[in-house]
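#lab-general

N.A. 3:47 PM
ok so I finally got the sequence cleaned up, no stray characters, all 174 residues accounted for. can someone with queue access submit it? mine expired

B.Y. 3:52 PM
send it over

N.A. 3:53 PM
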Amino acid sequence: MISKEMEMALNEQIELEGYASFLYLSMASWCDKEGLEGCARFMHRQSEEEKEHMLKIFHYLSEVDGFALTPAIAQPPHEFESVQSMFEQVYEHEQKVTNSIHGLVKKSYDNNDLTTWNFLQWYVEEQREEEALMRSILDKIKLIGGGPQSLYYIDKEVDKINAQAAKAEGEEAA
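B.Y. 4:20 PM
back already:
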C-alpha cells in the first residue's frame, strides 16, 4: 500500500505529464499551421509518449492500492515565436519534468517506499533520453541557422528523428 503523501505526489506528476501531452499536441497544431510536417509528426509522437507516461503512473497507483486522479489540464500556449523558441520551451519543460521525477525519487527513498523508488527508475532513464534528444534538436537548429531556407532543413532533420524512432519502435515490436 502506498502512503497518502506519495499518492498525492504521483497524482501531481500525472497532471504534469498530462499537461506535457497537451502542450506537445498544441505545438503539433502550430507546426501544421506553419507547414512543418516533420516537426508536427514529432510533436504528435511526443504528445502520445507523454500520455503513455501519464497512464503508466495512473495504472501504477491502482496496482499499489492508491487512487489516481484524472487531472484538470490547463490550456497550453498555441502560438510560438519560432521553431527554435518552441523547441527551447520543450527542453525547458522536459527539465521541469526531470526535476519533478527526481523529487519523487527522493521522496520515495526518504519514505522507504522501495516499490515506488524502483518504479520511478524507468522515468529517470526516460528523462535523461528526452533531455538529450531535445538538446540534440536545438543543436541542429543552431547549426542550420536562421536563413530563408532554414525551416525546410530543420523540418527535414526532425523528420529524420521521426524515421529513426519509427524504426526503433518497429524493431521493439518484432
